[in-house]
């Protein structure tokens, strides 16, 4: 339904992103991500026809979008920008009603149907309670809902949103992303959205376009394109790693100010809080023995922590076990968690016993991280 063909976008003689070839269907969400200044908003504004293409074209249902009249376009596309708006003394209802302009008469009079659509639009973003409230008395999250309701009142086929979660707290960010998902599937809306929060983007996008260095670095299913390598490269990360399996960033273990080695015996993700605490506080963690498909392995690897690991599913070898014991010999403490039971962990339990027999500081972590504060 929407397609860009060899599109280049920019200002004056300055091309910001070139050769953009994207396509999307009804009911899909396309997320555009990339570093600050990459050209995400410039691309959105070009698709929204606020800017003319420098080259190529944008097609909506086979027609060049820049050749549609403003009134034709207003029935097809609605836009919610980031800029904070100051509409004066208007209620939620008044603002949403602006969305009906493409359908009202010259005087902007609302029919009964228009009014019903305004109320329905408010309902679909859970903002019915804001209809009679003044816009300037609303919170950022409430204003965002009203702006989306205004866009929905336009009854568009495509909804374009520039950074809709910028001013929202975690709960409202999640609520908004779920709402977009709902709108795309229930109303069959195509949604194009720029997001800085790639953890959320990954979870709502059907397609993802990554922009960097004036071009599209990758375009496709987020599950395919969001590899650790690609995301690290997108943001030029050298002090963090994107963990592709879990879909979030882990900070690397760089500042080892404590000069203390801590051996961690964990597994199945139970070590995550311990590893984060030790990295944050400048210890030198070594973790093991882990299998290479263990959640703690992925977490530790993304943090750049030393890991003693065995291939996934292979039994732990004598060699790895001895290596772990040597690390324990040089450690200032051993921390162990309530890791899952299993064959591997019989050996890992032995490591804990080994440390205890050597009268080393061995600390059990279950839920209170302060047990680590005296290492
Ligand atoms: N009106 C304008 N005239 C000229 N250059 C502009 C204009 N608006 C933005 N730019 C430039 O275009 C480039 C891309 O800006 P754009 O706002 O599209 O990036 P972005 O990816 O949306 O960034 P951010 O994540 O910081 O919002 C930047 O170098 C910016 O300075």
UniProtKB/TrEMBL annotation:
<keyword id="KW-0067">ATP-binding</keyword>
<keyword id="KW-0547">Nucleotide-binding</keyword>
<dbReference type="GO" id="GO:0016887">
    <property type="term" value="F:ATP hydrolysis activity"/>
</dbReference>
<feature type="domain" description="ABC transporter">
    <location>
        <begin position="2"/>
        <end position="238"/>
    </location>
</feature>
<keyword id="KW-0813">Transport</keyword>
<dbReference type="InterPro" id="IPR050153">
    <property type="entry name" value="Metal_Ion_Import_ABC"/>
</dbReference>
<dbReference type="InterPro" id="IPR003439">
    <property type="entry name" value="ABC_transporter-like_ATP-bd"/>
</dbReference>
<dbReference type="InterPro" id="IPR027417">
    <property type="entry name" value="P-loop_NTPase"/>
</dbReference>
<dbReference type="Pfam" id="PF00005">
    <property type="entry name" value="ABC_tran"/>
</dbReference>
<dbReference type="GO" id="GO:0005524">
    <property type="term" value="F:ATP binding"/>
</dbReference>
<dbReference type="InterPro" id="IPR003593">
    <property type="entry name" value="AAA+_ATPase"/>
</dbReference>
<protein>
    <submittedName>
        <fullName>ABC transporter related</fullName>
    </submittedName>
</protein>
